[in-house]
Design goal:
eight-stranded antiparallel β-sheet; 24% strand; binds zinc ion; alpha+beta; two-stranded antiparallel ribbon; 27% helix; Helicase, Ruva Protein, domain 3; N-terminal domain of MutM-like DNA repair proteins
Length: 266
């Protein structure tokens, strides 16, 4: 599943290629994208210019010149492809947004392009102007330990699951929640409301360090890679680099949590 660093990377990748360009056609190629963007919506999108591409949590926002936005989420396996119009469509293309050539000082600079949403599982979504109600960005520079503590303190749910709840904190997925908890030395089963102020400080540092680490690694991680480039994620049975204990795995909310029983405490 694409995590925050990969989503941020996708935004950086497409922004210079689509910003300032006018939409000339929107073609859904799958029942789900057809449902999400009705014929009426598609007609109204034609003629709009994409003024920017930004991110909110793991949602990507294609900001339009009328103040609305297309909201994309990769879910498990989505991605963008930008290619010349008329080129053969990639396998698993689900939505094509055709963009007019960029007009630069009276002359047409480049040919027209297609921005294509690809997804083998067809779970990725693109909706129009439905911005989800989510918490502050996990990597926001102005997020304080007190604010983090306040977002988490209202629930008895395990801290790992609270971190994955996008309404509390936006952007953390299964990999970086586990990595952040290891860095903070916190047992993933700790009830969120038991988190102490010092632990919140460590956790915030851990979140930032784990995400920075992720940004340095280019490309998307596939589970089962022989040497996982993480501290705990996908490393069950391997040695903890901090205390030498074998990394363990447990199931929380139907998903695997990796952690170190030696140095992650309640
Ligand atoms: Zn350890």
């Amino acid at each position: 599943m694409p995590e925050l660093p990969e989503v941020a990377d996708a935004v950086r990748r497409i922004r210079p290629r689509v910003r300032g360009r006018r939409i000339v056609a929107v073609e859904p190629l799958h029942a789900a994208t057809r449902r999400a963007l009705s014929l009426a919506a598609r007609r109204r999108l034609v003629g709009r210019t994409i003024t920017d591409v930004t991110r909110r949590g793991k949602y990507q926002l294609l900001v339009l010149d009328d103040g609305t936005q297309l909201v994309a989420h990769f879910r498990l396996d989505g991605d963008w492809v930008v290619q010349g119009s008329g080129a053969p469509l990639p396998t698993h293309a689900r939505l094509v947004i055709e963009l007019a050539p960029r007009a630069a000082a009276g002359r047409t600079s480049r040919g027209s392009n297609s921005l294509i949403l690809t997804d083998p599982r067809a779970l990725a979504t693109v909706t129009w102007d439905l911005i989800p109600d989510i918490g502050p960005e996990a990597d926001a520079a102005n997020l304080t330990p007190d604010a983090l503590l306040a977002r988490l303190a209202s629930t008895r749910t395990a801290i790992k699951l609270a971190l994955l709840d996008q309404r509390r904190l936006a952007g953390l997925g299964n990999i970086y929640a586990a990595e952040a908890l290891w860095r903070a030395g916190i047992d993933p089963r700790t009830p969120a409301k038991d988190l102490t102020r010092p632990q919140a400080t460590h956790l915030l540092r851990g979140i930032r360090a784990a995400l920075r680490d992720g940004e340095r690694r280019a490309g998307r991680y596939r589970t089962g890679t022989r040497t996982a480039p993480f501290k705990v994620y996908d490393r069950a049975g391997a040695t903890c680099t901090r205390c030498g204990t074998a990394i363990a795995a447990l199931t929380q909310g139907g998903r695997t949590t990796y952690w170190c029983p030696g140095c992650q405490r309640r």
